[in-house]
Structure formats: C-alpha cells, structure tokens
Amino acid sequence: MTLHSLFSIAPFDWAAIATAVFCGAIIGLERQLRGKPVGIRTSALITMGTYVFMTTALVISNQHTDPSRVIGQVITGVGFLGAGVMLARDGVVLGVTSAATIWVLAAIGVSVSLGYQAASIKLSLISIAILYGVDLLEEHTVAFSRGVHTRYLGRRRQDGKNPFSDR
C-alpha cells in the first residue's frame, strides 16, 4: 500500500470536496452568525453530499443511465429538506429563506461536481451578498420591511405595532 493509495478517494477529488465544503461553510457561517437555521455543518454537508451524489452518477454513467436524473432527485430531496425548516407560527410562515438557501447549496454542490469550482465559489459569494444585503436593506429601509417582510417578534414588529391588528 502506497501513501498515494492511502489518501486516494477516487473517483472523488480532494480539491473538489474542499471547494464544496468551503462553499457550504461560508454560506452556513453567514446563517449561523445571524442565528438562522442551516448553519455551517448543515450547509457544508449539503454541498458535499450533493457533490458526492453527482460525481457518483457521472462515474457510473453509460448508455443506459442518465446522470441528469440525479440532479432531479437532488432537487426533490433538498425540497423535502427545505420543507422541514419551514413552519407557520401565528399566521406567519417562517424559514422560507432557509429553505431557499438549502436549494442553492445543492445547486452549488452540483456545480462543483461538474468541475466549476471557481464559479461555485463566486455563486456562494453572490448568495451571501443576497442574504446579507437584503437583510441590511430590510433593517434600514422602511419600504423593504413592510407586509410579509415585517420582522416577526412574537406578534409585534420591532416598532411595537401589531402587524396582525387589521385582521
């Protein structure tokens, strides 16, 4: 047994796994620092798991198999996972952004498996910019914090008004 064979994870690639974990971890870090569901561990595992499923599908691909079907199944699977983080409380649906983040994480994992590591990192940074940037807009702009985007704190908004009083 050689040192190379000891550390080989063929057909997988260490650099691609590191990229998948990095992409998931930086998105998860943003979510975790803000106290949101789907933190670092979950995000890194979603991107890495998607990478492993897709790479495996590509390896076993032949004239009788279609790796694109795995993409469809990943979308379905993460949709189920995303539905698990959403819930309704006092007439307000919470966790939709976390569910969408799970979906994007899986897409990034697919991107890594297809060899687009640099693009995957850029997509992760764009995702963080959206998550953080829109939150800043909601905090500092009245127009972005109305209606369904009212901050949920029990049954009161941050300004103390009851968003459900007109029902």
Description:
There is one protein chain. The chain has one domain. 63% of the residues lie in helices and 4% in strands. It is built from 6 helices and 2 strands; from the N terminus they run ααααββαα. A two-stranded antiparallel ribbon has the order 1-2. The longest helix has 24 residues, at 117-140. The chain starts with a helix and ends in a 27-residue tail after the last helix. The mean pLDDT is 87.
Blueprint (SSEs and pairs):
Blueprint: H1 3-7, H2 14-33, H3 40-59, H4 68-85, E1 87-89, E2 92-94, H5 96-113, H6 117-140
Helix pairs in contact: 2-3, 2-5, 2-6, 3-4, 3-5, 4-5, 5-6
SSE ordering: HHHHEEHH
Count of β-strands:
2
Order of strands in the sheet with the most strands? 1-2
Helices, by number, come to 6
Taken together, the total number of domains comes to 1
Q: What is the helical fraction, as a range of percent?
A: 55-70%
Largest sheet: 2 strands, antiparallel
Mean pLDDT across all amino acids: 87
> Could you tell me how far the N terminus lies from the C terminus, measured between alpha carbons in angstroms?
71 Å
Which residues sit in consecutive blocks of at least 5 with pLDDT less than 50? Answer: none
The fraction of residues in strands falls at under 5%
Shape: elongated
Structural class: mainly alpha
**Gyration radius over CA:** 19 Å
